[in-house]
Amino acid sequence: MAVVISLGGSMINGTGSVDRAFLREFREIVLKSKEKMGIVTGGGKVAREYASAAREFCGNNYVADEVAIAATKLNAALAASLLRGAAHPGVFHDFTKAAAALGKHDVVVMGGTIPGITTDTDAVLLAEAIGAERLVNLSNVDGIYDSDPKKNPSAKMFSRMSHAQLAKMAQESDQRMPGTNFVFDSVACKLAARCGMELHFVGGKNLKELGNAIKGKRHSGTVVSTE
Ligand code: UTP
Questions:
Q1: pLDDT at residue 179 above 60?
Q2: What atom in ligand 1 is closest to the CA of residue 122?
Q3: What percent of the chain has pLDDT over 70?
Q4: Ligand 1 centre distance from Cα of residue 196 (Å)
Q5: What average pLDDT does range 187-208 have in this prediction?
Q6: DSSP codes joined into one string, 118-149
Q7: Residue 55: pLDDT above 70?
Q8: 47 touches ligand 1 (CB under 6 Å)
Q9: Is residue 41 pLDDT above 90, yes or no?
Q10: Which of 87, 104, 134, 119 is nearest to 184 (CA)?
Q11: Is the pLDDT score of 227 beyond 80?
Q12: Cα gap 191→216, rounded to integer Å
C-alpha cells in the first residue's frame, strides 16, 4: 500500500523559522507507519512573500509562480534531509521518476512542478502515479468546514463529504492566486474526484491524527470519498 502526504508549508516554517520539533515528530510517524510514502511539500509564507515580491518586480504571474515553486522545493529538500536513509536522497520534479524510485526507496519527496497549479494538485498527481490508496493533507487547518472558521465561529466541520461537494466549495473560492485559494486547490479536487482518491484532511497540531489518517482509521478531521 502507498500513501501520499501533502505537507503544508505552514507546518514546516510557519513563523519564520523551521519547526524542528514538529518535523522530528512527523518523521517518527512516517517511519512508524511502514508504508510506501510520497511526500509533497508546500511553500507556505516564504512562497507567498517571494511570489508577491516577484509579481511587484516584473508583473508576471508565471514568473511569480516559478519563484514560489523554488520555495516549495526548498522545503522538499529539507524534508528529504529529515527522512534521509528512508527517502530517496533527492527531490523529484517528475511524477513518473518519483513513482519508479518507490521501488527501491520507502519514501519519495517532491515540491512544486509547473506554474499555474499548487502542491495540492502535485500531491494528487503523485498519488495517482504511485497508485496510492489515500492522500493525507496535513496543514494548519484541521478539516473542511461549511464556512470559514476564522470568520464564522459557528462554522461546522464535515467529518465525511463527497468529492463533488468538496470540488464545488473549492471552485467557488478559486482565484488562481497564491494563498487565496480554498483549503484544497480546485484542480486538485477535480483530479481526486476523477480517480476516486480518498482524501483525509487533518490538522498538523496533533500528529496522532496523522498516524490514524495514514492507516485510513478514524480521526478528528474530514474524509472525502466518492459517495
Ligand atoms: P503551495 O502549494 O504551498 O500553495 O504552493 P498555496 O496553496 O498557495 O499555499 P498555502 O497552502 O495557502 O500555504 C505555493 C505557490 O507555488 C506555486 C503557486 O504560486 C502556489 O500558490 N506553485 C506550486 C506552482 O506554480 N506550481 C506548483 O506545482 C506548485
A1: no
A2: 28
A3: 96
A4: 23
A5: 95
A6: -HHHHHHHHHHHTT-SEEEEEESS-S-BSS-T
A7: yes
A8: yes
A9: yes
A10: 119
A11: no
A12: 20
Which atom from ligand 1 is nearest to the alpha carbon of 183? 11
Q: Which three cell numbers stand for residue 29?
A: 510517524
pLDDT digits (tens, 9 = 90+) for 104-143: 999 999 999 999 999 999 999 999 999 999 999 999 989 9
Collapsing DSSP to helix, strand or coil, 106 comes out as coil
Q: Of ligand 1's atoms, which has the minimum distance to the CA of residue 47?
A: 14
Atom of ligand 1 nearest to the CA of 119: 2
- Domain ranges within the chain, ordered by starting residue: 2-225
Q: Which CATH class is domain 2-225?
A: alpha beta
| Cα 32 to ligand 1 centroid, rounded to whole Å | 29
The residue with cell 514546516 is 12
Query: How confident is the model at residue 183, as a pLDDT?
Result: 85
181 CB within 6 A, ligand 1? yes
* Amino acid identity at 87: A
User: What's the chain's average pLDDT?
Assistant: 94
CA of 71 to the centre of ligand 1 (A): 9
Protein residue with its CA nearest to atom 13 in ligand 1: 44
Question: What share of residues in the chain are helix, strand, coil (percent, to 5)?
Answer: 45, 20, 35
Nearest atom (ligand 1) to Cα of 10: 13
Q: What is the mean pLDDT of residues 195-219?
A: 95
Query: Which residues lie closer than 8 Å to 141 by C-beta, 6 or more apart?
Result: 183, 201, 203
With a 6 A CB cut-off, is 179 part of the ligand 1 pocket? yes
Distance from the CA of 35 to the center of ligand 1, in angstroms? Answer: 26
